[in-house]
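hiii so my PI (J.) wants the whole complex modelled not just the main chain, which honestly fair. so below is everything: three entries, each one labled with what it is. i double checked the lines twice but i was tired so who knows lol
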Amino acid sequence: MSSRVLPVFDLLLPSNLEEAVGLLSQHGDQAAVMAGGTDLLVGMKVGMSPAFILSLADIQGLDYVAFDAKHGLRIGAMATLSQVVDSKVVNDKYHALWYSAFTNGTPQTRNAGTVVGNILRASPAGDCCCAALAHGGSVLLQGPAGKREVDLDEFWLDYRKTARKPDEVAVELKLKAPEHGYGSGFAALTRSYQDLAKINAAARVIMDGKVCRKVRLAMGAVAPITLRLKEAEKVLTGQEVTDQLLEQMAAAVRKEVKPIDDVRSTAEYRREVAGVLAKRVVQDAIKSVAGPCPYSCFMGA
Amino acid sequence: MKKRSISLTVNGTVHDLEVPVHRTLLQVLREDLDQVETKYGCGTGECGACTVLVDGEKAILGCLTLAASMDGKSITTVAGLEKDGQLHPVQEAFIEEHAIQCGYCTPGMVCKSVSILAKNPKPSEEEIRHNLEGNICRCTGYVKIVQAVQRASERI
Amino acid sequence: MSDFKVIGQRVPKVDARRKVTGHQEYADDLRMPGMLYGKIVRCMEYAHAKVTKLDLSQAAKAPGVVKVLGPKDVTQKGYNSGVLDLMVPEPVGQMLGDIEDQLVFTDHVKFQGDAIAGIIATSEEAAERAAELIQVEYEPLPVYLTAEEAKKPDAVQFTPLKPGNLAFALPIQMFPDGAAYAWGDSEAGFAEADLIVEETFTLPKVKQCQMEPHTYVARYGDGGRLNCWTSTQMPKCIHNKLARLFELPMSRVHVIQTTVGGGFGCRLGMIAEPQVCAMAMAVQGKPVKVSLLREEDWLGSESRHPGKYKMKIGFKKDGTPISMDAHWISEGGGYYTHASGVQFTLGAWLAGTYKWTNFRFKGDRYYTNTTPCGAYRGYGNPQNNFAMEQLIDRALNQLGIDKVEWRKKWHKTVGDDGWCMGVTYASCGLDECLDKGAKAIGWEDKIKKYAKQTGSKRRGVGVAVMTHTSGAMPMLLEHTTCTVKINEDATAELIFSCSDLGTGAHTSLQQIGAETLGFPLEDVHVRAQDSDISGFDIGAHASRTLYVGGSAVIEACEDAKRQILERAATALEANQDDLVMENKKVFVKGSPDKSIDVATICYQGVYNWVMPDTGNWIGIPGQIQGYSSYFAKHNSPPWSACFVEVEVDTETGQVKVLDCVAASDVGKAIHPPSVEGQVEGGIQQGFGQSCMEAMIYDEKGLCLNNTFADYRMFGPSDMPKITNILVEEHDPFGPYGAKSAGEGGQVAPTGAIANAIYNALGIQFTEGPITPERILKAIKEKGLQA
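here's the output for the full assembly
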């Protein structure tokens, strides 16, 4: 293991998706799929040693961030975090996702790393995982039998484990189209400003005046996978959002999370701040229904 | 494939190389092309000492980039910023603001600063700091580095 | 004193252009014909174990491998990575009990990362791959992570020389008052006290995190010479130590200092020089490069000393600090290293800061199965500051005394004993630091404003002060040398061994040289890299480079200048006392037309011809060189005060630093931007130690965060705006009145940020780092008290 010398592997460079799927059918069990490589190559410097790397770099047309009002947002497998941060439409309509990409990693890793890669890595602390789960959506997979969509709610199976089969390529992430009264927010607590999250949270609300018609609340680094906090969502759904209600929701959040101790934080702390963070992202989401993105300070500066 | 033939432009010079696919851009720059101005600091993408520019403006990490994936790309290292003996405004500003101490982070820090100003020539202080994340300096507390980017911003 | 021409100017640093263009060469950038690559094989699985089997045969057969080395294939001599023994008189060294308990490769692993073997191959990659083929079997031993565990009677002994695994305690021969650094009677003092505050503080194990990983090249050849290229902070000490370790005369050891990519103490003494030189000696004639990986640099080079600090202070109602009693117990890691040095100086800084009526300090250091502890910026002072400054504030809150006023009244000053009794302070600008700093941060208003707060965000301000040292006379041999060679065109070369760790030391020394010679800055060059050329020095540490080196430069340049004036007097047929040197011209006072160029004097000294037409010699023969072998006469402590304002989110425990004012008395700021840079960088490290940084070990003694991903530091967006106030209180001993600026910058921020958090919450944190986890837990348990 060395942070300077990578283990030896065979590089597969398909030029289209069909070829990629074919190669994965052949080598899938021993292959790692690489988009930006920012996670994979670090993993390989600390112990991972796949026999093959299948790089998506030569497949044209996967680096899109596209939106239409009916189908929502589509992010291609090679679209970088920087592209998402630079996207006016994401900043405008998907505040939680925008902010999760904005605070994710560093400019260099955002220039190489992809949103879909973040989803596929299935880290419970993944910022984009958390935001995407709150927005709600699906991952489009392409395999030997064709394409299939897996709802994000079913995509992460366990720690670092996803519904993607070894012979499938994740082609795109789809997020649902905003409805009237749509707002979202994201927050993470970190040791230093730029850091992996100790805990992160995201909310998407659909408001009808002061009443929360629908809500999706997601939280990361409090369980082996990014969690939907469904009990907490129930507290808010259909109710007028008051400080008291938010406290009730926070209490529900603390019951729902199952955090652990690790090098970044403690289970006790995570449980304690889980409620606080949930309140804050719900408040941010509600604020963003009416106003511009609360995090737009760097856009078009 | 275990090796790939690539054409890589570094500071304007085209290199036709056959690189083992497991070699990083940082290894190829330092060991094969003797471009030792780009530094190894951590190898895992945290410190930014190996930052170089793609197409003169996009900052990437040499340590987390496979050289084999850089076919046809143009890379600028800190040594490529000086043109005909004339320093880049960012380089001048780093000298004038005394933003250099041990200097080990400097090649990456300068490349990063060039990329910040390429994206937004008039960044706010907050934006400069946000975008300097990913380049660790243990000497300066970042004070004079931020000032250097601001000074360069006035000249670009 | 304001008529300086070069000193005090914000000139570009000597190395700035090379560094900003990437042309500056660091050790890893060196390329040599036939170069081989060495890999130090380290035990990563255990923190304490015996190697029962080491099979290198598979590795030896791997492609590209030139040689493999086990513990028996290299010198069996022990060494100590620290070099204190070179700097203290022998009897003192014996009393301190310094030992040489390290081996090039060991079969008794004492911490994760201990070196067990070496591989030499034709490429780094080949060496790396071969290392994976080494077969090792271990017998695990019990792991001791705390002093309590290590000192148990049945504990495995790290060395027979230190029974009970007690590496160091203050020796009673030197500290007769119960093996404590003491004066007065601390117990009697407590009996008289109106208020006693007492606490045990826990200090974290923090890492220097220099950006350039330790890298070396060595070549044994050139007719039996051992050459070693290293970015050490102590080239001349390494020269001596390598000669001793490999039993060679010093003339057969050649140390070339490469650019130092950050020091902060991590390059004091030997780090992997013994291993790389042992490898080079095994493949004679071939250069061998060893570049540590970041993850092994983290474990295999030294850290700051962590520990428990019991402290008790007695005050009179009026604030008189009538008694101080402190006991520091450090968990020092697997080898002896700096056991004596840091454990003494921790108490020295405590002794030196305030006017304790009665004082007592004990310092112990135990062996533990962690990365050995060594030198890190401040050398005990930041640990001391975190505890002392917080405990004082606790008392002052109870006594109702203003924290700035108390510090002004009770800090030591001119005429008082410094950190070493008998060496009294010769200058002190701390009052001005406190006054200017308090004004800049708005101390009085903010103290009032933050006394009553509501809401979830709480703000606080804190102050801490510190004194440090400029060189460590009389504790260390404060000796350095400088030669100034004047070329025939009247340009000068300063030749010395003082390293520049990036601090701006060479720029400052160049300025001192130019000022003293009266030469323009661009005519003075620094040459400092080579043990064959430069004279003796003890290295860049103890904040000594500018202070001791600067004085040597002055002496050497004055020597050269005297020779120039002597020759001018002869040439001008004038009295030397009547001569003035300006703009590289010497003229007779009052008759500016009667002059000679310095260049002419220098030229004629070198090209001293007999003119064929007249048969006369032209000028006075001999190239002018000035020389100094300088021993420091004092330690001129610098002073500083740091003020910090924070905002604590009481719902998450997160701390945001809003403002920081550092006011530093450094005597004369020779190169002000370098001084500012030291202060600013010190703040980043001080804040980190107090609020964010710590090496974390699991119960097996394996480090969980030997990467920048898991060991976080204050980044660009975490750092506040910094107001940097330089107070230039002239010091009678310092070169042009200068005191040190290197280490001090880190010290007061550690205490100041802790005190700001205390002020914001009314809760004091005795365990560092003060993380949001600890803050939130304390708020929950104790409630907000502000």
